[in-house]
Design goal:
The protein is mainly alpha-helical and 431 residues long. The chain has helices at residues 2-13, 33-50, 82-91, 102-114, 116-139, 149-154, 174-179, 194-212, 215-224, 226-235, 251-254, 256-268, 297-304, 308-314, 339-344, 346-351, 354-357, 394-401, 405-412; strands at residues 286-291, 295-296, 322-323, 330-335, 381-387, 424-430. 45% of the residues lie in helices and 7% in strands. The strands form three sheets. It has a two-stranded antiparallel sheet with strand order 1-4. A two-stranded antiparallel sheet has the order 2-3. It has a two-stranded antiparallel sheet with strand order 5-6.
Length: 431
């Protein structure tokens, strides 16, 4: 509702983001209050919702991470002179350009002031996730600074799901995940696997760099897709500097690169802002076991007397706590100190309550799920594809075709009620 309100305000005033002139990297971008308000609103809500993690509840007293954003909170100010920010950013050893301007300053203030508790949680998570990212980025000869992408993509939550279905630490859409060979089915979603998804992200970033030869444009394209970046370049008259095409990019992407710069600053200079990492209950050292038969995480947890939450945190790719190793081996990640105990009790683990965990009467039938997460398809129904027109909403489309809104959402993997003109919707109608 707030985004809609801001959009209506902009329309009423005749002010649109594209009407602002692009700036060079060393110039401060114009301080448009409404523009800053909209950028901050999207960034703040995204950070809040993604940080509603399953393991953060152990570290913080409150579960309320989806706070409303006060309009007055847009104007967050800092007593630190701009010259200090400029000097600190210049001291960061980065192959990726880290310029400073008013938009970057606003995002730095969000990280270091408004969202201090969230950033302290992310700082604690970096001890576990950053070594994984750095090793894989180094393997592909990519800048290690790109480890910041999951910070702004998912707030380091492997189970994060965006409103359009992007999933995991690196926020892969279904099609992109499959394109980069990630397994996605009813039991397994490797977009949530920190290692598999990081390899896929590294390959994707390498492909983007082969197109643009500019890391800032690569970061923008990672967020909105190379198609949108190419259109922005064309509309700008062929300019290939991010800040020259800034106002031709989608609004969310305009805040993406400044947020990346701000995250790099905040995590590098967290001590200067008295930001202290909150320790997470994630084992920093783990090892992998190859599993060759069906196994439930509860079987491992109960036999080895370890919390099921630990196994879920180390193996977030298993959506139903089941490792479906039928005809294919899968990896089980467990704390290093438990490896010997697992090997000694392997047969006992597989036999433990197997008739309970793998009773056909208790299992969900994977046949009800389709490759695009479509389910509850009425028997004898006919599939049709509907293209969204101007003025359409899910409710009217559902009534027109005699289906429910929840069915439309499930057939098309839609979270919420947002649809776009020209979007294709799969609908199953009677007869």
């Amino acid at each position: 509702m707030k985004k809609l309100l801001y959009t209506l305000i902009l329309s009423a005033l005749g002010v649109m983001p594209y009407g602002l002139k692009a700036q060079t990297p060393n110039q401060a971008l114009p301080d448009s209050t409404l523009e800053a308000m909209m950028l901050y609103e999207g960034f703040s809500n995204n950070l809040d919702s993604l940080l509603n993690l399953w393991y953060i509840q152990q570290a913080l007293d409150t579960n309320n991470f989806v706070d409303g954003v006060d309009i007055d909170s847009v104007g967050i100010h800092s007593n630190i002179p701009d010259s200090v920010y400029i000097n600190r950013l210049a001291q960061i050893n980065s192959i990726i350009d880290l310029p400073f301007n008013s938009i970057v300053r606003s995002y730095i203030n969000v990280y270091t002031q408004k969202k201090r508790d969230r950033v302290e949680v992310m700082l604690g998570l970096t001890d576990y996730y950053f070594p994984i990212f750095e090793e894989i980025l180094d393997l592909y000869q990519l800048p290690t600074e790109l480890r910041m992408l999951p910070v702004i993509e998912s707030a380091l939550n492997p189970r994060a799901v965006s409103r359009v279905g992007a999933t995991g630490l690196w926020q892969f859409m279904y099609g992109t995940g499959r394109m980069y060979k990630l397994t996605i089915n009813s039991y397994v979603d490797e977009r949530r696997d920190p290692i598999a998804s990081s390899h896929a992200a590294a390959r994707f970033l390498k492909d983007l760099y082969s197109i643009y030869k500019d890391w800032t444009l690569v970061i923008a394209a990672y967020n909105c897709g190379p198609g949108n970046v190419n259109k922005a370049i064309r509309r700008s008259g062929g300019k290939r500097n991010y800040w020259d095409i800034y106002y031709y990019l989608p609004r969310e992407t305009r805040g993406y690169v400044p947020a990346f710069i701000a995250a790099t600053y905040a995590l590098t200079y967290h001590k200067e802002h008295n930001l202290n990492p909150i320790a997470m209950n994630l084992p920093l050292v783990s090892d992998t076991i190859m599993v060759n038969d069906m196994l439930h995480l509860n079987q491992v947890a109960e036999v080895l007397n370890m919390p099921i939450s630990t196994l879920r945190d180390l193996n977030p790719q298993y959506k139903m706590d089941i490792i479906p190793a039928k005809g294919k081996s899968y990896v089980l990640r467990i704390p290093m100190e438990s490896v010997g105990q697992y090997i000694d009790n392997e047969q006992k683990i597989f036999a433990y309550k197997d008739s309970v965990y793998f009773n056909p009467n208790n299992r969900i039938d994977p046949a009800k799920f389709k490759s695009s997460y479509q389910y509850d398809v009425p028997s004898g129904s006919k599939k049709l594809v509907y293209r969204v027109k101007e003025g359409d909403v899910l409710g009217t489309i559902a009534r027109r075709h005699g289906v429910s809104v929840s069915q439309l959402r499930s057939w098309n993997n839609i979270r919420g009620n947002i649809i776009r003109v020209g979007q294709k919707l799969t609908i199953y109608v009677k007869g």
